[in-house]
């Protein structure tokens, strides 16, 4: 009788813990990056009343007789299933799709988080809502990343400068009119940039010198200072450029102060080339690699975790890259807060790398991962927990009534 009462008490205690876990899940239904917990029960060691007996020639075998001693909570299991993504369209909101955790330093300790609501602090560092420093790799001046440098606090300083780029290549496209008379000219102009980002006006004059031939001359600056060019005669066959064979006209270094060699590309690409057809003149510079200095105006995060800055000079440049970590046994992680974990002796070491490698997932910019708590399932589990608690309490009541009957045998 006493044994059944203690078994029921164990049931009460276990279902109370189950209620605590379910209540915490429901409380975190709107916590970004929260992962649902579930309780795992197991029975307590059963008492052996009588052992098993082997069969004999005259008697069959006998099974053991055991009486259970109750239930206990064997542990909790974290469900790392994907939570649904909520679109926020905010530049520094990032959700992980698949496995992995963001790496965060907080108060000298390394944590791992699924919550991707990031902010900038007064020093330009990318931080979590509770001030944790988000880790990754910073890009060099060329926008390249070197993982060998190790993780660092991601910084995006306000007013970050993109240094000027010296113009070294200009690509042209468009048409020179085949119906133009010999001696007719077509003009086009653009700006090139020196090492300090100072813009210099470059003017090109294309004069028709034969039926399928145009000669190009160049000058720069307000004074129209002449420039010597190589391969400056364009020859066409059936409207397509055939000379120069490498589709390049070159300006030697030193002719424009502060600039080196400049290559003027006039063909070689199906979608960008100079032609001579019976249409109006449309030759112009399509692209060029020079730019003045620029100031950071906005940023965005790509699916590969690269934070790209947009600068006032119209250029985009990688600034930093988010790091992602995964573990051999994520269920072995120790939960610190709703969306932060720290490694334990049973989780394995953090395997840190880039998105999409080593089993790590990708990221979805402008979104946040919501909790993976299913309210319908939680309320069903809540009813199970309540009924289990009620049933265990009835066992206590029934055992008490039986004990009362035994006491009443002696009046």
Description:
The chain is built from 2 helices and 34 strands. With 411 residues, it is mainly β. The protein folds into 3 domains: 2-52 and 61-80 and 372-408, no CATH class; 90-160 and 296-369, no CATH class; 169-288, Tick-borne Encephalitis virus Glycoprotein, domain 1. The strands form 8 sheets. Strands 7, 8, 11, 12, 13, 26, 27, 28, 29, 30, 31 and 32 form a 12-stranded antiparallel sheet that branches. Strands 14, 19, 22, 23, 24 and 25 form a 6-stranded mixed sheet that branches. Strands 15, 16, 17, 18, 20 and 21 form a 6-stranded antiparallel sheet that branches. The mean pLDDT is 90.
What characteristics describe this protein?
411 residues; mainly beta; Tick-borne Encephalitis virus Glycoprotein, domain 1; 3 domains; twelve-stranded antiparallel β-sheet; six-stranded mixed β-sheet; 2 helices; 15% helix; elongated
Short description:
It contains two helices and 34 strands. It is mainly beta and 411 residues long. The relative contact order is 0.20.
What topology does this entry show?
Elements: H1 2-27, E1 37-43, E2 47-50, E3 65-67, E4 71-78, E5 85-87, E6 94-97, E7 101-106, E8 109-113, E9 119-120, E10 126-127, E11 133-138, E12 152-153, E13 161-162, E14 169-175, E15 185-193, E16 199-210, E17 213-220, E18 225-227, E19 229-230, E20 233-237, E21 240-243, E22 248-251, E23 262-265, E24 274-275, E25 284-288, E26 294-301, E27 306-311, E28 316-322, E29 324-326, E30 334-337, E31 340-342, E32 351-353, E33 362-365, E34 367-369, H2 375-408
Parallel strand pairs: 14-23, 14-24
Antiparallel strand pairs: 1-4, 2-3, 5-34, 6-33, 7-8, 7-11, 7-29, 8-31, 9-10, 11-12, 11-28, 13-26, 14-25, 15-16, 16-17, 17-18, 17-20, 19-22, 20-21, 22-23, 26-27, 27-28, 29-32, 30-31
Helix pairs in contact: 1-2
